[in-house]
Amino acid sequence: MKKVLWALAAAAVLAVAAPAEELPKLSEFLSSCYRDNGACQQKLKDYVQAAKSQHIICLPEDASVRGAAGEVLSWLRKEENYPASLKDQPFDDGLYEASTKLYPCKAAEEPPPPPVPPPAEGSAS
Length: 125
Hints:
This protein is 51% helix and 0% strand.
């Protein structure tokens, strides 16, 4: 699912399309966010917008894409939120991990079980 979302958002997220094996690692992406916060925020906004439009994540009605992008970045900067091995994975894996943790879509509620009929009158207990 992560790779499908990435394929759909690749043109918007990256200026030059790159094969998945050439994507920057999450640790590299986070470092680049300190150097160029504007470009980082734009990539995050594009990712969040694509994930939202594909129903991968569900933003609350009062949340903006820009605000959600900032929350995703804040979540990723707290390394205790995810396994250390994620830092060495392509950065889109980290974006997926953060955005789905922060903005999961609720599963469709299951219908309540049918009511239990009352015991028949006159039955021996």
